[in-house]
Amino acid sequence: MTMKKEYRVKKNTDFQAAFKKGKSFANRQFVVYSLKKPEQKHFRIGLSVSKKLGNAVMRNQIKRYIRQAFLEMENEIQNEYDYIIIARKPVTEMGLQEIKKSLTHVLKLSKVLKA
User: What CATH class does 5-109 carry?
Assistant: First the structure.
């Protein structure tokens, strides 16, 4: 299953808004910016994976894992938010389940998971 287009943050202005106005939370693997958008019907995610983390194949795999983790957690995530996820170096050695666990941890810190 793939992530629908309307679930993605693509525009630079949307990224910048999340960086400026949103709240950020981090652990060793991820930085997550969350920006509340009350008019939104479902969450959107934007991904940032630096070239320092590896070649294109590695970066795309990381992005696929993050998207998949979000799809699996879809019901637990609050809908009226934009999330910007920035991957850090340790992610390169992680599998899907570890990435999901780490993302869940950061989202719990940011208090955006439904109780």
Answer: alpha beta
